[in-house]
């Protein structure tokens, strides 16, 4: 399949290049840029020296749709809302890694992203796909909206309990931490070494744009109340840890909760559960498409603690996008994604 990437010079795009280089079905034929036309990707990323001969081309949706079967949009929010519809209309399949088509309510998108929403028709056309929860909708789809990084870790951590309606109203609190690559490649004061090194920062308190995405998905699974969701920047390059708390009012034991998770994820190739009372670290999923989950239940407080980790650039972005591409094209879901995490 002829495959193109827009935003290959960014971090998510670079991970797409790494994964697709070894993929047996998706062949990278074209790379597109808004700022580096005519250059080779190795001028931007020396670690890719000698690997991708094609020059970066300018963005022209009609031409792109003629040249490729599938385009990954690894662009900032506010870009794909314009680009994706033209590509799909011209017959190209699209997977958008940005937030532009995830939130199905335009007013909510504008409130949280502080940007103009995409056209409602195209928001509805885009299939939001967290494969473990809605892969059926993806088969044969032409246009996929890939989930956000924090939502992936959070929703996978909560889904088994939410689907069983076990969490009390207004009881979910998510304390999430991300490595700095989550902010992309462009430098900002918050992410430079001297600001971040040996430091821990909370940011976007009660204002994170992933709140409506998580709430939308939890609502579709049956949890109707708002969540408390806070994010922290931690001095490491990659990884997200979402530590999730919720209250369970039904009489239940921790072993029963763990059994529920085991059953829910028993056939999932990319969700790994730790033994009851053991918890994953971010390094244990680095460079992979895994989401690792550990949990405990405190019978004194009736509170469950769930720890869910992913690599933000992989299961949180690029490798999940490839998982979606595999499903879209009727391929084995794990194709090109069966590699171990990078450790240590
Ligand atoms: N980083 C992460 O962990 C995650 C990121 N995402 C989302 O994925 C997308 C990409 O993120 P990330 O790779 O981190 O971001 P980066 O900032 O690292 O890269 C984004 C790329 O987009 C391209 N770009 C910038 N402006 C435009 C434009 N006007 N038109 C077309 N392309 C443009 C740039 O490439 P060029 O200059 O060559 O055009 C740039 O390299 C974002 O929407 C992000 O929110 C989602 C989940 C996790
Ligand atoms: C560490 C860091 O800054 N992370 C980013 C991740 C967001 C992202 O990837 O943007 P989307 O809304 O397109 O998913 C943030 O918190 O805003």
From TrEMBL:
InterPro entries: AGPR (IPR050085), AGPR_AS (IPR023013), AGPR_dimerisation_dom (IPR058924), AGPR_type-1 (IPR000706), NAD(P)-bd_dom_sf (IPR036291), Semialdehyde_DH_NAD-bd (IPR000534). Keywords: Amino-acid biosynthesis, Arginine biosynthesis, Cytoplasm, NADP, Oxidoreductase. Its EC number is 1.2.1.38. The active site is at residue 149. Residues 2-141 form the Semialdehyde dehydrogenase NAD-binding domain. Its main location: cytoplasm. It is found in: Cytoplasm. It catalyses: N-acetyl-L-glutamate 5-semialdehyde + phosphate + NADP(+) = N-acetyl-L-glutamyl 5-phosphate + NADPH + H(+). Pathway: Amino-acid biosynthesis; L-arginine biosynthesis; N(2)-acetyl-L-ornithine from L-glutamate: step 3/4. It comes from the Bacteria. SMART domains: Semialdhyde_dh (SM00859). PROSITE patterns: ARGC (PS01224). Catalyzes the NADPH-dependent reduction of N-acetyl-5-glutamyl phosphate to yield N-acetyl-L-glutamate 5-semialdehyde. Belongs to the NAGSA dehydrogenase family. Type 1 subfamily. This is N-acetyl-gamma-glutamyl-phosphate reductase. It comes from Lederbergia ruris.
């Amino acid at each position: 399949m002829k495959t193109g990437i827009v935003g290959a010079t960014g971090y998510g795009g670079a991970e797409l290049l790494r994964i697709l280089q070894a993929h047996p079905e998706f062949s990278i034929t074209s790379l597109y840029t808004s700022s580096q036309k005519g250059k080779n990707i190795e001028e931007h990323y020396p670690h890719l020296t000698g690997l991708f001969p094609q020059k970066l081309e300018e963005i022209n949706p009609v031409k792109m749709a003629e040249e490729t079967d599938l385009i990954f949009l690894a662009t900032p929010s506010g870009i794909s809302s314009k680009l994706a519809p033209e590509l799909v209309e011209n017959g190209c399949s699209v997977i958008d890694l940005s937030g532009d088509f995830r939130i199905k309510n335009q007013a909510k998108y504008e409130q949280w992203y502080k940007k103009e929403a995409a056209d409602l028709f195209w928001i509805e056309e885009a299939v939001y796909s967290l494969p473990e929860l809605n892969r059926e909708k993806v088969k044969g789809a032409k246009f996929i909206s890939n989930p956000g990084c924090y939502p992936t870790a959070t929703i996978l951590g909560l889904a088994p309990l939410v689907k069983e309606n076990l969490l009390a109203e207004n009881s979910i609190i998510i304390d999430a931490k991300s490595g700095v690559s989550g902010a992309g490649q462009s430098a900002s004061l918050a992410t430079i070494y001297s600001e971040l090194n040996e430091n821990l920062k909370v940011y976007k308190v009660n204002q994170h744009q992933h709140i409506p995405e998580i709430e939308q998905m939890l609502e579709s699974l049956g949890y109707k109340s708002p969540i408390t969701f806070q994010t922290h920047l931690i001095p490491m390059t990659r990884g997200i840890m979402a530590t999730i708390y919720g209250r369970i009012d039904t009489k239940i034991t921790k072993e029963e909760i763990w059994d529920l998770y085991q059953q829910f994820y028993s056939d999932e190739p990319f969700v790994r559960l730790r033994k009851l009372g053991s918890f994953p670290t971010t390094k244990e999923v680095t460079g992979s498409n895994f989401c690792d989950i550990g949990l405990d239940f405190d019978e004194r407080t009736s509170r469950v603690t769930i720890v869910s980790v992913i690599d933000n650039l992989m299961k949180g972005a690029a490798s999940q996008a490839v998982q979606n591409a595999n499903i879209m094209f009727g391929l084995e879901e794990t194709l090109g994604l069966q590699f171990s995490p990078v450790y240590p």
